[in-house]
What does this fold into?
Amino acid sequence: MDLLSLVRQLGRLLDENGQAHIILPFDKLKSLDRLLAKHQFYPHKICPVFPRPEKATHRFLMTLGKEYKP
It folds into this structure.
C-alpha cells in the first residue's frame, strides 16, 4: 500500500478521537509527514528504531490521529 492510500484509509477508519500506530521505513518519514498535514492528521509520538546501537535508524514507530496534541 502506498502512503497516500494509507492516509486515505486512516481518514475513513478513524473517528475524531481515534489513533493509529504504524511502523514504516525511516526514509518515508518526511513524505508521510507532508501527507498527514494535507489530510489534517497529527503525529502524537514518533520513535526511531535502531537495529543495533552502532547502526543508523532504519524504521520508525508513529502514533497519529485527527486530534492535535502539542
About this structure: The longest helix spans residues 3-13. Helices lie at 3-13, 29-38. The radius of gyration is 13 Å. The chain has two helices and three strands.
